[in-house]
Every structure is written in structure tokens, then in C-alpha cells.
Amino acid sequence: MPTLVHRFVLTGAASEVPPARREIVDKVRAWGVPLDEATADAIRLVASELLTNAVVHGTGPITVVLSGRPGRLVIDVLDGHPAVPRSRCAQADDENGRGLALVRLLATRCAWESVGPGKRVWAEMALPMAVEVGPAEAGPRDLPAIRAKGRVGPKPASPRSAVA
User: Fold this and answer.
1) Does the entry feature the keyword Glycosyltransferase, yes or no (predicted)?
2) Where are the alpha helices (DSSP H) in 16-88?
3) CB pairs under 8 A, 24+ apart, for 88-95?
4) What string of pLDDT tens digits covers the 164 residues of the chain?
């Protein structure tokens, strides 16, 4: 299966984050990925953190690129500000400062790299595998057998530095 790609651009306004988050989950579902609510919520959270950081700490326009292959999704967020993404040590009553820690927790891999005058921050997430039902694979009592598709494909381009 080839890599599925979806790209869109935001101006950098905070009001664009919720619809962009929905667009990401909707696109993954449109690709035929059987998302359960826990996986959809994880994608929404990672996307929200990456997008919000680009809006708050970066400069627009912000380019979002989704790359999907069986079993994985890469969310790339590119903005025009070269500042290095940094984790903060949030205190219990702080309302901010946990975003990159959440991304690291939910993503299988994440990193950043300088790109032109700005940066690219990305996160790779595991996805449920699509299933194929084949009539030639019918099991007992003519119930269709289900087999998962295997994972294939290259890894994302090697970043220069892991997200701190």
C-alpha cells in the first residue's frame, strides 16, 4: 500500500486548532483505518499539542502534513519560527507546560528538525491495522476468516534532534 498523504495550511490563529484536529481524525478514518475512541482521542491530543505549540510559539503559516501507512500515522507540523521546542517542568497547579511530555507518552516516536527559516515537529503514532475478509479464507461454518495486513514502509526522515 502506498503512503497516503494529506496536507493543509493554517494561518496560525488559535481558532484553527479545533477544526484542524477534527480534520486529522476524519482523514485517518477516511483512509479506512478502524479507529477506536481511545486511538482517536490520542491522535486528537497529539495533534492539538503540536498545532497549539506552533500557534503559540511559532509563526504562521503553519503547514500540516499527515502521512499514513498500514499501522502508523505521522503528523508533521511546520512553522516559520526557528525556536527549539522545549519541555517545561510544570507544577501541579500549572495550566501549561505538559504538551511535549504528553506527545512523547502517546507517540511511538517524535522529534524536531530545522527546516529553512523554521522547524518541523513530528510525531509518529501506532494505528490499528485494517482487516481483510476473503471468501477463500472461510473458516468453520462458513464464517469469514479475518487476517491483519502486515506493516510495511520506510520510517520518516531522520530528524536531527529528538523533542526535548
Assistant:
1) no
2) 17-30, 37-57
3) none
4) 578 999 999 999 999 999 999 999 999 999 999 999 999 999 999 999 999 999 988 888 999 999 999 999 999 999 998 887 666 665 556 456 557 788 888 899 998 898 889 999 999 999 987 655 455 544 444 433 333 344 344 445 544 444 44
- How many residues are listed for the chain in this entry? 164
Any idea what the CATH number is for the domain that residue 97 is in? Answer: 3.30.565.10
Residue for cell digits 516559520? 80
Residue with cell 515537529: 121
What cell was used for 113? 528538525
**158: CB partners within 8 A, 6+ apart:** none
Q: Domain of residue 97: give its range.
A: 4-162
pTM for the full model?
Answer: 0.73
